């Protein structure tokens, strides 16, 4: 897999997104994985109405017209990655000590293939050795029962976990007595959830894909859609074809902001006819989005003096509160400040405002470029303010639409993964399940790491994911995990989190989403919720990678039974037939009434959403304008604002190759994209090596050495590079005080030539 021997290349990419480059890349990938046949055959079963499995990639919804081959290059890669023929069995672990494996690259670790049986760390030999499932569960159960307090354990969720397993997982944690449920959402959309909850009384976006088909204007902020939500390209191209305006807001002009070959539109691919996917590009400085949106709102308010159609005053009066304060705030914010803080000219902001004014229906969509900041919550609320000004809510073709990450990260939260659960949910959970859920808040991702460091949390359970690499401050997080008495990783592939472990450690291998899940009542399906609140069933059909794998619900039930021997929860019965889990969920969860029937409709069902119907579960019962001051996001002299992001050939901590096709990079990940003038100031030329030093909020510094500098079209004062390598630079204390999210898109750094 490793391309390290190849020299790095950088050549700006001028082709449309998707298209032949994608086809070529997929073919090469399938050949390398030895999956040229099984891969494509499986993909035909993916995202299908009436059967098939949900793509384990991103959370972008399936096509509303039926699920005809709405697939993408990266979806194919994710599926193939899971379906590899390679295996990591007991012989592998017998042949390599953990210390030896720690010297391997992450790509080498993951590319060993699928895990096949439960393994326990044996300190005497520094190796993982086989352990039976009952023994593994007993180890977990004994350790949990031996804790002084249930809050000494934390239960992490990565967003692939299906809804049924999710429900059992949080039930186990709460029956044990803790709300310590950190999840990957603490690192991606916590800010969106908190902002939308405060403004609209819902933690989610209000639009669905049909709305995307009816919008006159789309404002797309801080997302690299061509790589991370590739099926959005279809929606963008179709919007362009019907004459919609598409405004991209991103310090980088990403591939999705230019043009595409619609991923499933093979006819056009053959004739090389690309469709545009953007009509205006704005390049704010890192963190400049809030000022930019404030500017658009200010322009709308100014326009209203002479243009009665500029604002929807009826909507504002009927459904909102706080408008006058917001108007005053916009008036008080000067154009100079807006221009300086956003890094976008007043003329360009006015152009975007004009597009907003002329559109009857607008959607604003955003991802991590907006959320992983100190002021992520304020920025999302500013976006909502702008939407409210023209009544872009609760009607077709309009509203907020955050782009979620992992395929079921939204479903995880819906089904109870929340370290700050609300009282009504806990009441119902307690009543229906006959438990007494703890009322005090639990720990999130950063809180868990700090607690492990202090010794307050001694058991860490990872339900999927690769915690040590995904989390900030890699050395700090590693030290925290090493202090644990027990770390348990439920995984499909070998990764770094198996090597950075507690005194005792377990690797519990599970079925992947593509695999057939047979239980006593027959083949089981699990449900997932996409980024637009559609819930549908996913049924794996591939023969499991090993006969020793258990499903995630079975693993959770096994741990729960061992830890709670007297539990009245019917753990075994739940695993025999997931319909029984769904029956319980339908009693506990809002919007899941008649779950078993509705989820079996061809396209599943959409969770009812009050804000969409202009019913607001906010303090005032109305949609609330916010009035936060603009933050100062201008880098101090000599420093740069650094955003960490994904490359094209990557799934979070899984690196498929060292290429980033749309950004024109080959064979290189240890790089930093910089503005050419910032390079010149530092005497740096393309491919020169530089040391990057971050300055944390507490003044401490962290460094990466010998990163290659790539000149890029990015505003002055801004720089970008790749996660997870750059997580070393994000101090554990550098999280937002608004969302508790690590500020992974806004690290303060200095860059200088390597010695
Ligand atoms: N192929 C693939 N797909 C994925 C993933 C993957 O790793 N690989 N990960 C999944 C997950 S879990 C998630 S959460 C999503 C993440 O999807 P994205 O949010 O697209 O993820 P990033 O790669 O972090 O890219 C963030 C984008 O924000 C921009 N940006 C940085 N700073 C700013 C800023 O201050 N303002 C604005 N407006 N933009 C900014 C960057 O230029 C970049 O385009 O993708 C999901 N889909
Ligand atoms: N600097 C920086 N850091 C970031 C981000 C950033 O933008 N910048 N983004 C953050 C975000 S948004 C996220 S979501 C996190 C990602 O954090 P995680 O979700 O923790 O990480 P992944 O890399 O997606 O996890 C990959 C592992 O999941 C396991 N796996 C795959 N499929 C399955 C399955 O079906 N079941 C189970 N049980 N396991 C499975 C495999 O063993 C694989 O090694 O990273 C965060 N970290
Ligand atoms: Mo994410």
TrEMBL record:
One of its GO terms (cellular component) is membrane. It comes from the Bacteria. One of its GO terms (molecular function) is 4 iron, 4 sulfur cluster binding. This is Molybdopterin oxidoreductase domain-containing protein. CDD domains: MopB_CT_ydeP, MopB_ydeP. It comes from Amycolatopsis japonica. Its cofactor is Mo-bis(molybdopterin guanine dinucleotide); [4Fe-4S] cluster. Keywords: 4Fe-4S, Iron, Iron-sulfur, Metal-binding, Molybdenum, Oxidoreductase. InterPro entries: Asp_de-COase-like_dom_sf, MopB_CT_YdeP, Mopterin_OxRdtase, Mopterin_OxRdtse_a_bac, Prok_molybdopt-oxidoreductase, YdeP_MopB. SUPFAM superfamilies: ADC-like (SSF50692), Formate dehydrogenase/DMSO reductase, domains 1-3 (SSF53706). Residues 114-488 form the Molybdopterin oxidoreductase domain. Belongs to the prokaryotic molybdopterin-containing oxidoreductase family. Transmembrane segments: none annotated.
């Amino acid at each position: 897999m490793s391309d390290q021997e190849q020299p790095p290349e950088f050549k700006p990419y001028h082709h449309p997104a998707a298209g032949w480059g994608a086809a070529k890349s997929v073919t090469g990938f399938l050949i390398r994985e030895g999956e040229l046949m099984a891969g494509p055959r499986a993909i035909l079963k993916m995202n299908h109405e009436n059967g098939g499995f949900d793509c384990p990639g991103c959370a972008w919804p399936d096509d509303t017209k039926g699920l005809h081959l709405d697939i993408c290059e990266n979806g194919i890669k994710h599926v193939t990655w899971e379906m590899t023929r390679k295996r990591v069995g007991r012989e592998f672990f017998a042949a390599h000590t953990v210390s030896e494996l720690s010297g391997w690259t992450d790509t080498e670790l993951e590319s060993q293939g699928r895990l096949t049986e439960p393994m326990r760390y044996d300190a005497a030999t520094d190796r993982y050795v086989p352990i039976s499932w009952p023994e593994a569960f007993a180890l977990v159960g004994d350790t949990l029962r031996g804790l002084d307090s249930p809050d000494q354990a934390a239960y992490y969720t990565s967003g692939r976990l299906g809804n049924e397993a999710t429900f059992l997982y949080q039930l186990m944690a709460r029956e044990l007595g803790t709300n310590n449920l950190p999840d990957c959402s603490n690192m991606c959309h916590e800010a969106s959830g908190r902002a939308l909850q405060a403004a609209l009384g819902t933690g989610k976006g209000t639009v669905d894909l049909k709305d995307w088909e009816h919008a006159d204007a789309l404002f797309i902020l801080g997302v690299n859609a061509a790589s991370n939500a590739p099926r959005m390209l279809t929606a963008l191209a179709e919007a362009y074809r019907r004459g919609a305006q598409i405004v991209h807001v991103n310090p980088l002009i990403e591939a999705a902001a230019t043009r595409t070959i619609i991923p499933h539109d093979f006819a056009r691919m053959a004739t090389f006819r690309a469709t545009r996917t953007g009509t205006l590009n704005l390049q704010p400085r890192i963190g400049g989005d809030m000022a930019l949106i404030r500017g658009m709102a200010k322009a709308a308010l100014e326009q209203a003096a002479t243009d009665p159609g500029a604002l929807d005053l009826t909507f504002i009066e009927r459904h909102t509160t706080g408008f006058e304060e917001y108007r005053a705030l916009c008036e008080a914010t000067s154009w100079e400040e807006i221009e300086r803080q956003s890094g976008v000219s007043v003329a360009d902001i006015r152009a975007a405002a004009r597009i907003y004014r002329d559109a009857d229906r607008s959607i604003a969509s955003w991802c991590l470029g907006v959320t992983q900041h100190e002021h992520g919550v304020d920025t999302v609320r500013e976006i909502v303010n702008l939407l409210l000004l023209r009544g872009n809510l609760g009607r077709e073709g309009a509203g907020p639409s955050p782009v979620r990450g992992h395929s079921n990260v939204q479903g995880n939260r819906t089904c109870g993964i929340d370290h700050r659960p609300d009282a009504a949910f806990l009441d119902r959970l307690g009543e229906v399940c006959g438990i007494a859920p703890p009322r005090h808040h639990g720990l999130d991702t950063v809180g868990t790491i700090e607690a492990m460091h202090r010794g307050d949390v001694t058991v860490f359970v990872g339900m999927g994911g690769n915690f040590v690499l995904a989390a900030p401050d890699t050395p700090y997080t590693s030290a925290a995990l090493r202090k644990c008495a027990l770390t348990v990783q439920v995984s499909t592939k070998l990764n770094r989190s198996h090597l950075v472990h507690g005194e005792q450690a377990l690797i519990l291998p599970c079925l992947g989403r593509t695999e057939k899940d047979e239980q006593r009542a027959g083949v089981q399906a699990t449900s997932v919720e996409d980024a637009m609140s559609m819930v549908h069933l996913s049924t794996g059909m591939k023969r499991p990678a090993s006969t020793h794998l258990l499903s995630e619900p079975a693993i959770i039930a096994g741990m729960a039974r061992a830890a709670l021997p007297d539990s009245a929860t019917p753990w075994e019965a739940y695993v025999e037939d997931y319909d029984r889990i769904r029956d319980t969920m339908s009693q506990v969860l809002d919007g899941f009434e008649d779950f078993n029937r509705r989820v079996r409709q061809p396209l599943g069902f959409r969770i009812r959403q009050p804000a969409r119907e202009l019913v607001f579960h906010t303090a005032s019962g109305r949609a609330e304008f916010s009035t936060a001051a603009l933050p100062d996001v201008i880098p101090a002299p000599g420093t740069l604002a650094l955003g960490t992001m994904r490359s094209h050939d990557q799934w979070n901590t899984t690196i498929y190759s060292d290429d980033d096709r749309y950004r024109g990079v080959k064979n290189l990940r240890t790089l930093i994209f910089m503005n050419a003038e910032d390079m010149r100031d530092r005497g740096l030329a393309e491919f020169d090596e530089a040391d990057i030093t971050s300055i944390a909020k507490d003044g401490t510094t962290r460094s990466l050495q010998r990163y290659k500098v790539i000149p890029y079209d990015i505003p002055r004062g801004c720089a970008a590079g790749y996660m997870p390598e750059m997580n070393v630079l994000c101090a554990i204390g550098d999280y937002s005080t608004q969302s508790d999210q690590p500020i992974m898109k806004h690290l303060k750094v200095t860059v200088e030539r390597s010695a």
